[in-house]
Predict the structure.
Amino acid sequence: MAEKSNNITNNNADDRTQTDNKSQLTDELYLEKLKELRPLDDEFMRALFRNNLPLAQMVLRIILGKNDLVLTEEETQYDLKRLAGGRSLCLDVKGVDDANKQYDIEVQKASAGARPHRARYHSSAIDVDVLKAGQEFEELPDTYTIFITESDVYGANEPIYIIDRVNKTTGKDFDDGEHIIYVNGAYEGDSDIGKLMHDFRCKNADDMNFDLMAERTRYLKEDPKGVREMCAILEEMRNDAVHEDRLRTAKQLILGGKLSYEEIAESTRLTVTEVQNLAEVKTA
């Protein structure tokens, strides 16, 4: 009995050692990744703007050329899953100013992530989220959907591209309050927006032009507390990616129709409830 007890103790100690080693290796990988991250990278961007209204306000003022813009609300990863029956959205940075104008800042490294139809969907989703039951359509606030892209998606070497609706017959603005803006992340001009895009491409705080951007970057990359926050975000995003892969696999198995919900849940490590919810969406 004593020998069996010793074996169990040794096995537990081995398991803890393996877990500790795996955790240490993961932390080291995250630290290496953190060194290379820039504000243009989704993982870093969401930490950079989290609970950072002054930074979001500064970025909007520069992009829109409105030095008097006063942001009153700011939230990262703003969830729009409440849209019944529609595709859910999670906005990178959602802001509201003192005139109730609505802002969505999206950072997109790949040009495919900033296609016109996506911009249209983001803009319309904000409208649905803002307008409440009983309100008139004329009460819709102005909205600004802003894509900061790593490359110059329109190839004209302009810092920003402004898309507003126009009545093509009269040539006059449609004036519906919807504004879609593409910011050229590759722009290198000497203006404030050129300096801001430079900062978005920087890995190191010391190379940045704007103090608000540099201070937050330095905290997240050099301060122990900030580094822990970043590692937690990287872990969260890794887990989210794993979960999304499991959901995609489950959807394929549901469509295959050969396995029960319990078998699909076991093979994908999802809950039976999650599998049932996926099946309901597929058959709705």
Residues 42-222 form one domain.
